[in-house]
Amino acid sequence: MINRVLIRTKVVQNLYSYMLTRPERTLDNALKDLDKCLDKTYELYHYLLRLPVELTHIQEMRIDEARNKYLPTEEERNPNMKFIDNRLVAAIASNEQLQQFADDHTITWNDDPIFERLMLEKVINSDLYKDYMSDRENDMTADSMLWQQLMKQVILPDENMADSIEQRSLFWTEDDMDLMGQFVCKTFRRLAEGDDEAILPMFKDEEDSSFGKELFSATVMQMPQNNELIDELVLDSRWDKDRIVLMDRIIMCTALAELCTFDKIPTAVTLNEYIELAKNFSTAGSGQFVNGILNNAVKLLRKQGKIFKS
User: Fold this and answer.
1) What are the structural domains, with CATH classification, of the chain?
2) Higher-pLDDT residue of 90, 243
3) Per the CB 3.0–4.6 Å rule, which of 38, 143, 149, 210 could disulfide with 88?
């Protein structure tokens, strides 16, 4: 689930922090921080999966309170229970794997009742909720689709959600929330289909699991020679090397380390990924600059026999 695109992003972000805090921060400490950062990202996936269960539980308690008050209305005595009986929510709540992870990592939104109340109000006042409650279609597919749409259109774009996520962990960003939201919706679909492996693992395989640490370490170890190469290419292109922003330099050093260390990753994949990172995390002209320097670096490294892959 945590794919190499996300791992590269976390490696670059942690390298930036590492370069600003050396020598007080050791490589071992930086690698531990990278592990923690990836672990917290996987926790965010579980937080988002858990939210429908807890919002549904609050609504169920509200309905019970209204039903048991002194003079309930006809609607309060005989409420529409479709939202409460949502099959997807029941599947999430009864999933032993999710429950074990929640218990082990204390995954709950109950410590923020104001947020829960505000979010539930947004949900039940949405057109998605009203259409769902009035629709005669009543099956797992419809139940799953409701929460997929709520996640995309109501929950993830909400400012209160962004604030709550930011307060819960310094490791989480809006980009993380959007990406994990996509994986959560994928999980909702898989649960609706009865997939026995609906809950996504943290990593696809052992190679992805070790990729972040290996890339981070290789970048640090190769940084002196790669900085020299970057400076040489910058001078040849008549740029001023002293005007290169730190993030651009880190992105290029990481890309060069990946090019020279990971033989199975095609050159074009590496170049595309780091050019996109430069566009997203650095200055306005960084994408074009990084593109030019890295392409010239690949030509030179191939001529020197340091890169053989396509």
Assistant:
1) 4-192 (no CATH), 206-303 (1.10.940.10)
2) 90
3) 143
